[in-house]
Amino acid sequence: MTIFDLEPVARQSTAELIADRLRVAIMRGNLTAGSQLGEADLAAKFQVSRGPVREAMQRLVSEGLLNSVRHRGIFVIELTIDDIEDVYHSRAAIERGALERVLEGRRDVTAAALSSAVEAMRDAADRGDISAVSDADQQFHETLVQSSGSARLVRAARTLLIETRMCLGALQSTYADIHEQVTEHDQLRDAIAAGPPERAFKLLADHMDDAVTRLREQQAAEAGSPEKGTEIGG
């Protein structure tokens, strides 16, 4: 193959750029769960025609991030407790697989990499910056998976990126003191650095289970009854 055989690099279309912006806004909670999106409003916001906005929104509908309701419009998805449990069960499987590889000979370098996320989380908690705590939480778990050296585990984790961030945003309000969250990650980092592998596996599993329990209780409290199914942001 010569350089003349290479295909030109495709530029992102306007619709792709808008879709990227909307994904980030959903992930960070700037577009809240359940909120309705209007073509005209978004077109004015992005200073484009309605065509690219419509295409971008349809892409996110196909990705499951937006929900199209006939005769009503398009809304940001709301995660039910079943969705949350599915996200965390999937994450648990991915991150346990990553942890297995890390404990086979990558402990020191992984613990060192995780330390920056723990310190960022601690600094954010000290400032009372809940959004930054969520960012550092996500960084911690992404670093754990990346440290496994498995490209497939990394790709699998990325498919859950936006839903994970939505869960993390809701999770912050379940802690009386967000420093508790820092402690959980600090203990997991230390267990990865040294000690019996069983402790690291247990801390990771407990961490995931605790998040699901907190979010389930949060939804039950918001609904006023544990029997009524509600959604994050509903």
Topology:
Layout: H1 14-27, E1 36-37, H2 39-46, H3 50-63, E2 66-69, E3 73-76, H4 81-103, H5 107-127, H6 130-146, H7 151-158, H8 161-171, H9 179-193, H10 197-223
Gist of the model:
The protein has about 230 residues and is mostly helical. About 70% of the residues lie in helices and about 5% in strands. The N and C termini lie far apart (about 55 Å).
Written description of the protein model:
The protein is mainly alpha-helical and 234 residues long. The protein folds into two domains: 14-76, Winged helix-like DNA-binding domain superfamily/Winged helix DNA-binding domain (Arc Repressor Mutant, subunit A); 81-217, GntR ligand-binding domain-like (Four Helix Bundle (Hemerythrin (Met), subunit A)), CATH 1.20.120. 68% of the residues lie in helices and 4% in strands. The chain is built from ten helices and three strands, in the order αβααββααααααα. The chain has helices spanning 14-27, 39-46, 50-63, 81-103, 107-127, 130-146, 151-158, 161-171, 179-193, 197-223; strands spanning 36-37, 66-69, 73-76. A three-stranded antiparallel beta sheet has the order 1-3-2. Strand 2 and strand 3 (73-76) form a beta hairpin. The radius of gyration is 20 Å and the shape is globular. Residues 226-230 have low confidence and may be disordered.
Give the integer mean of the pLDDT values: 89
- Give the CATH level 1 class of the largest domain: Mainly Alpha
Summarize the amount of helix as a percent range: 55-70%
According to CATH, the fold-level topology of the largest domain is Four Helix Bundle (Hemerythrin (Met), subunit A)
Structural class: mainly alpha
Shape: globular
Q: Low-confidence parts, pLDDT < 50 over ≥5 residues?
A: 226-230
Classified in CATH, the superfamily of the largest domain is GntR ligand-binding domain-like
